[in-house]
């Protein structure tokens, strides 16, 4: 009995896969991406609820974790704020996570994906639809000068003003004109491109909108900047991502480089890919 | 020493999935992922210990690239999932280019799930795969509407290659396809492909009062009793090994499939929520071999 089970298998001539198993375990298999987060608190931040988790591996801005809240699918959580001990995600009211008790355990997979890559820039522009703003919130203080162009159907759908730091230059666009400019991100009521001046000002731009709008926004970007550097303008794609590892083929998005997986090639893409 | 040997043998015993094939398809364990849920190679390497699996069944692969279906591609309702991806894949040539190296490194054989509509396509796919290291067999996916004669022609074309051919039979076509395909020389069967079903898929963006419905493959625990029904009827009537597929969520489920005559188990899309499920089932099936002290 001096040898181990693994040694026994290695010595066994009938075990055709023994050597490859050993090699695979020793050389290839990295650490697991499954871990447990602890639910800490949920507070209303209209129109969302801010839900905070303690987690050993908080996702970076634009990356995501897949949380198991008991449904048939895991749910992608993007961080709205992160620190060394965990992260906060913005969820819709009546989401199951808002009913958890402090200390409850939530099974997480991840972090997954390719997040925002904002280097040492001094002028950062964030562009979002109000409903898809939360993944951009960690970037509100990522540069000395930050501008946020925010579109909502109406004033009531805008986030709470205290969520936006006072240093952030806010440009509001509402589709009914109840706050800020009347129009959309692509075009104001006066027929002007809403973002033209801001795009010329920025050193880096991060978008969070419905992915169907990205081709039009990319065209606006091309009009404002002749030869932007790679990753000058990055766009977050929020689609269903059931597996997180590029296995299920459900999160495929059409880009200029062909179809790509939002969960592994993205979910943050260069907007010029659209 | 006896216990030690029994335990070691539980780790190394082989399941032969293609006993009638010249090369055979020995698997180190009776558990594998179903086609379409686990990717093409080591996508799940950070979440699943591949060494406890019997094989890797790839996502569906066609001869030419296929684009994804228009969204929505998934709908969830209670514990049911409907998936309609359009069987998007980059085509076999690109799959081989990208994943051949990882297949060679994997400690388990790869079973490539093929989709083809003509015998010529099937033969071309099998020809490209012949000699690919790490590939142990092919699983031929059949569409719901395929006629028995056409299915047999596809199988015969696949058998022209060197690799063992497993046929995945559509849920609604077992009665009409299983026996003709067994007689035509299928090395094994996967029973069954996910049944087709319809679920609500949200509201239309054009007309917000209109509810959309989505048709696609059903993944659900509700498929499990139907799987047992199919196994009870067919597993022992077919002279070749049967792989059970549909709604397996526990070791007990897998044992029930084996007791009804299945030789191996495929775990389907339920592992997206719980990737450890496939490992638990595999380790749970290996465990009974170790005698209680």
What's this entry about, in short?
The complex is a heterodimer of chains A (274) and B (293). With 274 residues, chain A is an alpha/beta fold. Chain A has helices spanning 5-11, 18-28, 196-201, 214-224; strands spanning 34-45, 48-54, 64-68, 75-77, 81-83, 86-91, 105-112, 123-129, 145-152, 169-174, 181-182, 204-208, 233-236, 252-255, 258-261, 268-270.
Explained architecture:
The complex is a heterodimer of chains A (274) and B (293). Chain A is an alpha/beta fold and 274 residues long. In chain A, 13% of the residues lie in helices and 32% in strands. Chain A has helices at residues 5-11, 18-28, 196-201, 214-224; strands at residues 34-45, 48-54, 64-68, 75-77, 81-83, 86-91, 105-112, 123-129, 145-152, 169-174, 181-182, 204-208, 233-236, 252-255, 258-261, 268-270. A 7-stranded antiparallel β-sheet of chain A has the order 4-3-7-1-2-6-5, with no helix packed on it. In chain A, a hairpin with a 2-residue loop joins strand 5 (81-83) and strand 6 (86-91). The longest helix of chain A has 11 residues, at 18-28. The radius of gyration of chain A is 22 Å and the shape is globular. Chain B contains 9 helices and 14 strands. Chain B has helices spanning 2-12, 92-105, 119-129, 148-159, 174-183, 223-234, 251-259, 270-273, 276-286; strands spanning 15-16, 26-27, 31-33, 56-57, 74-77, 80-83, 110-115, 135-141, 165-169, 188-191, 196-203, 211-219, 242-245, 264-267. Chain B has one domain (2-69, 87-195, 220-286): TIM Barrel (Alpha-Beta Barrel). Chain B is globular and about 60 Å long. Chain B is an alpha/beta fold and 293 residues long. In chain B, 32% of the residues lie in helices and 22% in strands.
